[in-house]
């Protein structure tokens, strides 16, 4: 067991249940393709990071998928809103004895291993590491101990999350990482490094 742990929150890749805002523009099938590509990107960028890694599924643990147990331990998210689920995931790993825990989602083509590795290094001299997202949320959160307040009373999915979280962290030594673009809408996808041509889009109706 290492002292550092990476938590990766994922949604089970099921048609009509992932990237629903993106699906309003490109349809459920292509939205599922994009999400599977996001999962693959996240796995590729994280599998060589020198830490213990945990994948937290939202609705059911899947054995035969890209997350090999050679590199990843598998767990199930608890019930509740995003804040409750993240809080409980952190608590599980802190109780296991990990000293530095970082959580990331699976929604960023801009996420790179070096960003996560930098966050772990920053936690040596900081209480918290956080990566702001362009939509007003955050894509990475690194903690050395539990902070229940930052997971409570948030409008998850709204543009107020990052600011509200920083308010809760007042008095803590916080490292701010680069601001990145997570993928919620077609506009987000266009601004990312993703090759949209693979989707073979002939026509779209923008309703974001």
Automatic annotation (TrEMBL):
SUPFAM superfamilies in UniProt: Nucleotide-diphospho-sugar transferases
Pfam family, one: DUF2064
Coiled-coil ranges (or none): none
Origin superkingdom: Bacteria
InterPro entries, alphabetized: Nucleotide-diphossugar_trans, Trfase_1_rSAM/seldom-assoc
Name of this chain's protein: Glycosyltransferase
